[in-house]
Amino acid sequence: MLHASDGEGSWFRIVDVMAALGGRGYSSAGTVTLGVPEDDLAPWNEGSYRLTVDEEGMPHVERVRGEAEIMMSVKTLASAFTGARRVGELANWGLVAGDDRAIAVVDTMFATRFAPHTPDHF
Fold first, then answer.
1. Which of 7, 93, 108, 109 has the most C-beta neighbours closer than 10 Å?
2. What is the pLDDT of residues 15-35, one digit of tens each?
């Protein structure tokens, strides 16, 4: 039987937070410290990362000690990373913890012109 509607979807997992943040393009300049709590499948992802994006959109990422300005699971980070969801939206759902300024900075930095989509089903 044919179905009347079709939904898009893809699965995405970040296995190296530092490399992923350093290899992505960004929409605006800024600096923020992101924290990733425990990651059972990739424990090396746990920790805090200072992400600095310059005016040309080039990122610099370093691991830092201490508290992060915002915290999100690696699963939530994947949604923000791909542009599938805005960071502000994820924060409203209770999936991102942190102060409003840091959330706004990351929301602007991670914004994408087009939402990702999966044209082929697999």
1. 109
2. 999 999 999 999 999 999 999
Tens digit of pLDDT for each residue in 5-17?
656 566 789 999 9
Q: Which fold has domain 17-110?
A: Nonspecific Lipid-transfer Protein; Chain A (3.30.1050)
Domain residue ranges in the chain: 17-110
Pairing of strands 70-72, 30-36: parallel
DSSP state of 39: -
Mean pLDDT of the chain: 89
CB 24 within 8 A of CB 81: yes
Residues ≥6 apart with Cβ < 8 Å to 45: 14, 15, 16, 17, 36, 39, 74
| Cβ count near 89 (within 10 Å) | 14
